[in-house]
Design goal:
With about 350 residues, the protein is of the alpha+beta class. It is about 35% helix and about 25% strand. α2 runs parallel beside α3 and α4 crosses α5. The protein is globular and about 65 Å long. The protein binds adenosine-5'-diphosphate (ADP) and magnesium ion.
């Protein structure tokens, strides 16, 4: 494969190269890339802003992460944060710091993923910054979105009697990472051996190319359901529930038997000697939405498909609990998502 050194383009040449096919989709984009700032028009809406930084070796491992997937994921995780405010994502800026280890072609791949996500989520890339790093790749993305003031959903507004809902299934992204790490270790110590990933396609996909649940936000809005609180699952269901409960000053009780996990995830967890429930509760990066609704909306959620009711909000005095299949109550703990810290 061809390798064009970054130095052949220089900073301005590189920015021009990476953004030459950038396309503006939204009327709200008044001025995109090319001036000192972008100019956006959110009319009568409130603006919602979020940002995330990804550091090579700390947040991603390029030995098994294709750059295209990384670009996609970097956008998706920010879009997910906008969705978790029950807002509509609309714009991103992308800042990169990159060492000369990377070629122009490598950055093209990264941007291919970024543009794919912009197309999938119907958002505009309207700016960024480009600089060099001494070692490794850094990607910082800022996402903007909008919502009417009354539509915005916070973490601190769950109330007693609300029903706790979770979209999709959980645990898969964490298991995907365990598989990728295992295969990496095997191929490193046995050069020539190909990693076996086919069996784990779903989990690996959930780790490498997560999907922000913009579709769920649209669905709930179409049914006139206004969640009473909402958060996206980046660190794990347990940790996110603790955020909602402590900020809302309530407790919760969820049921182990209702935690949505696919059969292949359960099988893989057991194969890896991991407790499936721990994977569902403390595995992170699923980017599903965890939210609470008023009990009056329960039936619509039950009939929606793809949303599971996992428990109920109770008083703060009752604590933040899970009831296991055997009927015992345990406190939920926030192990969170800190996989690399244990290395
Ligand atoms: P400034 O000197 O004002 O920081 P730059 O030369 O860094 O401007 O950037 C020129 C234009 O290109 C700006 O509109 C900026 O937002 C955009 N831009 C710079 N780097 C990137 C990037 N990595 N991805 C997308 N847009 C970028
Ligand atoms: Mg700049």
């Amino acid at each position: 494969m061809q390798r064009t050194e970054l130095s052949t383009l220089g900073e301005f040449g590189l920015i021009k190269h990476l953004t030459q096919n950038n396309k503006t989709r939204l009327q709200s984009t008044i001025k995109s890339i090319g001036d000192d700032s972008a100019v956006l028009d959110f009319k009568n809406n409130k603006t919602v802003v979020t940002t995330d930084i990804l550091v090579e070796e700390l947040h991603f491992d390029l030995s098994y992460t294709p750059l295209k997937h990384l670009g996609y994921k970097a956008v998706a995780v920010n879009v997910s944060d906008i969705c978790a405010m029950f807002a509509t994502p609309s714009h991103i800026t992308v800042s990169i710091a990159v060492s000369n280890r990377f070629s122009v072609e490598a950055l093209d791949e990264l941007y291919e993923g970024i543009y794919q996500a912009c197309s999938d989520y119907n958002i505009d890339l309207v700016g960024g910054d480009t600089t060099s790093s001494l070692k490794g790749l850094f990607i910082s993305i800022t996402a903007l979105g909008y919502a009417h003031e009354k539509e915005i959903v916070y973490r601190n507004t769950a109330k007693e009697g609300d029903i706790i809902c979770l979209s999709g299934d959980v645990g898969a992204a964490y298991l995907g990472l365990q598989i990728l790490e295992r295969e990496k270790a095997i191929t490193q110590s046995n050069p020539g051996i190909q990693p076996i990933l086919d069996k784990y396609t779903y989990m690996v996909q959930r780790q490498l190319k997560p999907n922000a649940r913009i579709d769920l936000v649209q669905f709930l809005k179409s049914k006139n359901i206004q969640p009473t609180s909402m958060i996206d699952v980046s660190d794990g269901v347990s940790s996110e529930l603790i955020h909602i409960c402590s900020q809302s000053n309530v407790g919760c009780q969820i049921e182990e038997e209702f935690l949505p996990m696919t059969n292949e995830c359960i099988t893989t967890a057991l194969e890896l000697n991991l407790d499936p429930m721990t994977c569902a509760l403390n595995g992170g990066e699923d980017y599903e939405l965890l939210f609470t609704i008023d009990a009056k909306d329960k039936e619509i959620i039950e009939n929606a498909g793809g949303i599971t009711i996992i428990g109920e909000i109770v008083s703060a005095e009752m604590g933040i609990k899970i009831r296991t299949r055997s009927g015992n109550l345990y406190n939920l703990t926030a192990q969170g998502w800190n996989h690399y810290a244990t290395k």
